Amino acid sequence: MSSRALLFPRSPLAGAALLVGASLLLAVYGRVYCLAKPEAPGVATAERSLRFADRADGAVVITLAGSGQVLDVAQGQNGFLRGTLRGFARQRHENGIGAMPPMRLSGYADGRLILFDPSTGRQVDLEAFGSKNEAVFARLLTMAPRSQTASAAAPSGAN
């Protein structure tokens, strides 16, 4: 066998290199010049300041920050609610911030629903997780408070 038979053909190799190079150039160009930055959501059409606290039985007590009225007691699985709040609680813990500062839930005219923690600057655009998960928080903007206050709901700890 000649040494020429063992070599890989140059034209497919050059074509592959050209394709990879062009892809990288287009990606950089698109990133720098073409991609629009996300617009600010504008003015909120609905907004509530909320506190979230864990109860000994595993429920999450959701209260209105201004009045302390209980808005809801989330019992059972509530995986999306718990997972979202766990991320906020982790960041608060890392920054030495307790659970007392309220979070702001805001709904916008364009359909965005954002949970924002003013104490850390973290925000989560809830629509990114699908309409079913977003609805877990969306209902908190319109539901009426329960008749009991947070002290009557007996939270044991906080998120």
Describe the protein.
- By secondary structure, the protein is α+β, with helices and mostly antiparallel strands.
- The protein folds into 2 domains: 3-34; 44-153, no CATH class.
- 36% of the residues lie in helices and 23% in strands.
- The chain contains 4 helices and 6 strands; from the N terminus they run αβββαβββαα.
- The chain has helices at residues 10-34, 79-94, 131-142, 150-153, and strands at 44-54, 60-64, 70-74, 103-108, 113-117, 122-125.
- The protein has a 6-stranded antiparallel beta sheet, with helices on one face.
- A hairpin with a 4-residue loop joins β5 (113-117) and β6 (122-125).
- It is elongated and about 80 Å long.
- It starts with 9 loop residues before the first helix and ends in a 6-residue tail after the last helix.
> Could you name the ranges where pLDDT drops below 50 across 5 or more consecutive residues?
none
Order of helices and strands: HEEEHEEEHH
Backbone shape: elongated
Strand arrangement, major sheet: 3-2-1-4-5-6
Number of strands: 6
For the termini, the CA-CA separation is: 72 Å
DSSP strand content: 15-25%
Number of domains: 2
- Class per helix and strand makeup: alpha+beta
Estimated helix fraction: 25-40%
Gyration radius (Cα, Å) is 25 Å
Task: Name the average pLDDT.
Answer: 82
Largest sheet: 6 strands, antiparallel
